[in-house]
Design a protein that fits this description.
Blueprint: H1 7-15, H2 20-30, H3 33-40, H4 43-52, H5 67-72, H6 81-87, E1 102-105, E2 108-111, H7 122-140, H8 143-150, H9 159-170, E3 174-179, E4 182-183, E5 187-188, H10 195-205, E6 209-213, H11 223-231, E7 238-241, H12 247-255, E8 260-264, H13 270-283, E9 286-291, H14 294-301, E10 308-312, H15 324-329, H16 332-340, E11 344-348, H17 354-363, E12 367-370, H18 372-375, H19 380-388
Parallel strand pairs: 3-6, 3-12, 6-7, 7-8, 8-9, 9-10, 10-11, 11-12
Antiparallel strand pairs: 1-2, 4-5
Helix pairs in contact: 2-3, 8-12, 10-11, 10-19, 12-13
The protein binds the ligand O=C(O)c1ccccc1NCC(=O)[C@H](O)[C@H](O)COP(=O)(O)O.
């Protein structure tokens, strides 16, 4: 039996539970799995509502049941999160379809025999891991505590402005240089990895902004790296390169000194992107919304408040890299619409040579995001000159 219970019915049941774990447990005992997943997956939109709540309480929906939270999802009532996502062409499921493989019923535990609980690709695996990681972190540092930390955060800097300025100064796309130790597709990129030294070298070499990978498990990055770079006095605005599944992560990034954050359209439905973008604006963060195909870019262009779109030449499900994707996605009418809306486009991934830079610039990008080709150089700052075919440092003017 499958219970197609609407969100209206599920939210009140959440309000009486002290924490997310007990919600998952108690509901999964008396209702079919699919129902429990829908409740547990009340993630970003409902959690985002919690952010605005006065009590700022931890992981469970605010009390009393917020009418607004219901309104936000009104058009989706009766649909499950993955179904809403699928209706927008999103294949990445936010978490395993039947919950974690281990289930507890009273003192007993059992395993679900379900092959659907295997991630279908690396991006899905990262997202499932991120979902549990964030739930744990939220329990340790609830939003209220995080909001307090924001009072001591260094002020946000103008990420998009820095890209525009560099583009005008050099006549080349503004560079977001990535502080990247490793990746699932390439393994370890640099053994002697000192994030602050790399960031300083990038800055000297003429980078407009930096991207700092903060995921530990798959990229060997960290929020500590981000804070270290910020506190070392690096002036380039910083992008927090994360896999965002929950608005809590946005507050965390700002608290650590980020000036911008990545949102991935292959993972987040429109409503999440819209709501998260609003939160970012409120906090003074820029959002780089990443797309990889026509459907994603068409969705994102129409979302209110979007100023910066990244076209990732890497397919995050297969690792295939093809820089002509940037060109394909912004040619013709679509490109015109993007320009008319004043959206800046960033070409991301797989850029190694001056010809690659010229190719994406010709296609219409005004910024590029580059990791591997420069981080691997013995002097990553000089690597930038190699990438652009000329010195673009401030001292070159
Ligand atoms: O790089 C990967 O292997 C990867 C795998 C799964 C999700 C994301 C991944 N990379 C993120 C990026 O897109 C790149 O770090 C970024 O665009 C720089 O790319 P590159 O210049 O090719 O290092």
């Amino acid at each position: 039996m499958e219970a197609l219970v609407s969100l209206r019915a599920t939210v009140p049941s959440l309000t009486h539970r002290p924490n997310k774990l007990s919600v998952r447990k108690s509901i999964s005992m008396d209702l079919p799995t699919r129902y429990s997943v829908s409740v547990a997956s009340s993630s970003s939109s409902i959690r985002a509502q919690q952010i605005e709540s006065k009590d700022g309480s931890a992981t469970v929906a605010p009390v009393p049941v917020p009418e607004e939270a219901l309104k936000v999802k009104e058009w989706e009532v009766g649909m499950f999160q993955n179904e809403v996502a699928a209706s927008q062409g999103i294949r990445i499921r936010r978490r395993p379809p039947t919950g974690p493989p281990l289930h507890y019923v009273g003192p007993f535990e059992f395993r679900l025999q379900n092959e659907g609980n295997t991630p279908r690709n690396i991006l899905e695996e990262i997202i499932w891991h991120k979902d549990t990681e964030v739930a744990r972190l939220r329990e340790r540092r609830p939003l209220l505590a995080l909001k307090k930390e924001l009072e001591n955060a260094p002020p946000p800097r103008d990420f998009i402005g820095a890209l525009r300025e560099a583009n005008l100064r050099t006549g080349l796309p503004g560079l977001i240089a990535e502080v990247k130790k490793a990746s699932p597709s390439r393994g370890i990129l640099r053994e002697d990895f000192n994030p602050v030294e790399i960031a300083q070298a990038y800055e000297r070499g003429g980078a407009a902004c930096l991207s700092v990978l903060t995921d530990e498990k798959y990229f060997k990055g960290s929020f500590e790296n981000l804070a270290l770079i910020r506190n070392a006095g690096v002036k380039c605005p910083l992008l927090c390169k994360e896999f965002v599944v929950d608005a809590w992560q946005i507050y965390n990034a700002r608290a650590k000194g980020a000036d911008a954050i990545l949102l991935i359209a292959a993972v987040l439905p429109d409503l999440d992107i819209k709501y998260m973008t609003k939160i970012c604006k409120m906090l003074g963060l820029a959002t780089l919304v990443e797309v990889h195909n026509e459907r994603e870019i068409d969705r994102v262009v129409e979302i209110e408040g979007i100023e910066l779109i990244g076209i990732n030449n890497r397919n995050l499900e297969t690792f295939e890299v093809d820089i002509s994707i940037t060109k394909r996605l912004i040619e013709g009418e679509r490109g015109k619409r993007i320009r008319d809306k004043g959206i800046m486009v960033v070409g991301e991934s797989g850029l190694f040579t001056p010809d690659d830079i010229a190719f994406v610039q010709e296609a219409g990008v005004r910024a590029v995001l580059v990791g591997e080709s420069i981080v691997k150089q013995s002097d990553p700052g000089k690597g930038i000159a190699g990438l652009f075919g000329k010195d673009i440092s401030l001292s070159s003017n």
